Amino acid sequence: MTHALFSPFTIAGISHHTASVADMEAVRFPDEEAFLERAGEWFKGVILLQTCNRIEVMVHGNADLLVTFLEGEGRTGWQIWKDAEALSHLLDLAAGLDSMVIGEDQILGQLRKALTLSEEKSVADPLITLCINKAIHAGSEARRMSGINRGAVSIGSAAVLLAEERLGSLEGRHILVLGSGEMGVLVTQALAAKHLSAIYVANRTFDRARLLAEKVHGTAVPMADLYRYLTLSDVVICCTAAPHPVIRAEEVSQAMNSRSWPLDTTRRPLIIVDIAQPRDVEEEVGKIPGICLYTIDDLRKVNDDTAQFRKEAAMKVRAFLDQELTQFIRLFNRKAADELLATLHSWAEQIRIRERDRALSRLSGYDDRLREVTDDLTRVLTRKLLTDVTLTIRTCAERGEMQIAENLVGAITRGEMICSRTSD
Question: Which residues touch 26 (CB under 8 Å, ≥6 apart)?
Fold first, then answer.
């Protein structure tokens, strides 16, 4: 068993490991559907995974073509994983080993969402679908057998821990959560146990803000009153999906004027944690007196009490994924062989139909029953004649022996001898 793949699979990625928030913003694709449509013209299958701290483009295609495509999109600076290395990276991703918070669960839902979008845009071919589903299954099993996600926090709860660390405690505090999507839910869930005086939830769609606020006994506020509630809060956590900043320096500067105690010109401090991607808060906001602005880059410094446990669990997960990779390659190659087998079976079907019709033309006055029997006979014969070679080709594919499999099909469909091909 080799680690060769029967068909090319490539991942181009950029993440928190090597890139800052600004670097990731520069290569982010704001219109995911449009990107998938363009990529679908280049590759048999494509997945786009974009989270707050990573961007991954996965394709059923070779690395050179993917690099060329991304350069044409004006995006450079990617790390490239090819073939078996790409499958291994995908397993690490799904298991949470590559996450900022080791073992976090959110990546599994993000992979499912990315696959669903590709399926909706008809750019998820069977091989890409197999890869994502296998990775999700392996990631789920890795968590079950190792407990690596025990005590692990999401980026949302890490933001809450950061605010708590800076203030000493969140008890009795007022918190404003900007955004009611997946990240907003994680943030409010983490806040719910902190004995706050108030949780305000603001969102572009007020009904969504209200639904989320009701779950945590908070208060939904209109976006039009954003800066008013900002001045009432001790912490603001931003996690919208807006394509542009929604908290602007000029408005914040004006709002901060009302945060001074009577007869005191000192402004009460305000902590803003921006975990949105792209960022929700203009960079200049961090320069305003009294504002402490943190981004995803700062979450790396959050102290995690379960880090040692997850480090030990990660070693178990690594051993498990090394075993899974062998099976993954076998499954991948078996599925990749379908295209080659389709060529073989299509060739055989054309011959079957031709010879069936030729035989029927020699029979005078045949009825529908005779035609049906003849059709069944030729179909069964064809299938049985191809059974052994189909199994052999699949076995070659699973082992990564692409040339042997192609030679077999060539020898059958084009009458070429294997020995003549291998001697060239």
Answer: none
Name residues whose C-beta falls within 8 Å of residue 115's C-beta, 6 or more positions apart in sequence.
47, 124, 128, 129, 132, 133
Q: Angle 368-398/402-413 helices, nearest 10 degrees?
A: 150
Residues in the chain: 424
Which tens digit of pLDDT belongs to each residue from 215-224? 888 899 999 9
Q: Where are the domains of the chain?
A: 10-152+308-334, 155-299, 337-422
* CATH code given to domain 155-299: 3.40.50.720
What dotted CATH number matches 10-152+308-334? 3.30.460.30
Work out the number of other CB atoms within 10 angstroms of the CB of residue 225: 12
Q: Is 131 a catalytic residue?
A: no
This prediction has a pTM of 0.68
| Residue 184, φ and ψ in degrees, nearest 5 | -60, -35
Paired tokens of 375: 């059709």
Given 52, 131, 238, 239, which residue is catalytic? 52
C-alpha closest to that of 78 among 95, 56, 100, 99: 56
Sequence-distant contacts of 112-115: CB under 8 A, at least 24 apart? 112/136, 114/47, 114/48, 114/49, 114/50, 115/47
